[in-house]
Amino acid sequence: ANPSLTAAVVVVTGLVGANFVQATLDKLRFSDPIARGIATASRYFR
Fold first, then answer.
1. How far apart are alpha carbons 3 and 41 in whole angstroms?
2. Which Pfam families does UniProt cross-reference here (predicted)?
3. Is the pLDDT of residue 8 over 80?
4. Which of 3, 12, 24, 31 has the most CB atoms at less than 10 Å from its CB?
């Protein structure tokens, strides 16, 4: 696979996932910024 394409897909996936998880955490009423940050980082930025 093309390394540039792979890098772009990884970045886009991470950004989309980070935005999606924020909306999900809002619906679940998670308001603690530390918990939100850990949830976002552990799920989409491995």
1. 23
2. LrgB
3. yes
4. 24
pLDDT band at 4 (very low <50, low <70, confident <90, very high): very high
The token pair at 2 is: 């093309």
The alpha carbons of the chain give a radius of gyration, in whole angstroms, of: 13
Nearest residue to 30 (alpha-carbon basis) of 43, 13, 15, 12: 43
**Residue 34 pLDDT > 90, yes or no?**
yes
Going by C-alpha positions, the residue among 46, 39, 44, 36 that lies closest to residue 14 is 44
